[in-house]
Amino acid sequence: MGQSLDIDLLRSFVAIAETGVLGQAAARVGRTQSALSMQMQRLEGVVEQPLLFRTGRGVTLTAAGERLLAHARQLLALHDETLAELRGEQLSGVLRFGCPDDYAVVFLPHLLRGFASLNPRVQLEVVCAPTPRLRELLARHAIDLALVSVMASADDADVIRREPLVWVGQRGGSAASLDPLPLALGAPDAFDHQAPRQALEAAGRAYRLACASSSLAGLVAMVRSGQAITVLTQTAVPDDLQVLPADAGLPALPTVGIALAFDREQPSALVSAFGSHVRQALPLA
Are 91-150+258-281 and 163-256 equal in CATH topology? Predict the structure, then answer.
């Protein structure tokens, strides 16, 4: 009979993947670093594949490790939910979750509905704000965890999903052809404000800031009026607006990563459970 995947090994593997540092992962699962290393040797023996690269900066996943990570998160979530249900245990308490407006519109209903159906005794409180404000709230422990925007580096194990930033304008509008280019952008210290300005400056394209607002509704209203164009993640573009094509003459924009950030290194069981739910339920791109 073949070997089986052990839940404890998978839990340790996910901890390493999420922290990228053996010391932090060992603290999370309550083991020594040497014990954690032995566990990973056992797991690699079971799957007959190398799962981890050890570098000077920490630990990264091999291609096989990336594939296992997605399955491991699903198996752990199902295991923990099954055990809690059979024991008659249910998570309870208040969970404070932060999310940028553009992610909230697209992802939040699905994320909250799925978690609430499994954990009806949990009271969810949601704060929508740009990533810099959410990080400030996390630092003050005013929220427990948040979806945040990060640079979408290819080796970032914390990135759950990657979203291209796109130029967005009114359907049939002419704002993209104006000189200087009128922009409606988010908070000045946010990635989706700084990235388009840097791209335009590098391309030598003149622009003016027609509107700066932390409110997604305000930015979209400005674009709908035909007075400006904006920059959004691709999935957040409303149906009545359009992604401006390449022949609009605008410079290419970077891709943003969506990651989870916590207010403390060792989250509570409730916060950890919601974090696992988000990683499992947020669709990959």
Answer: yes
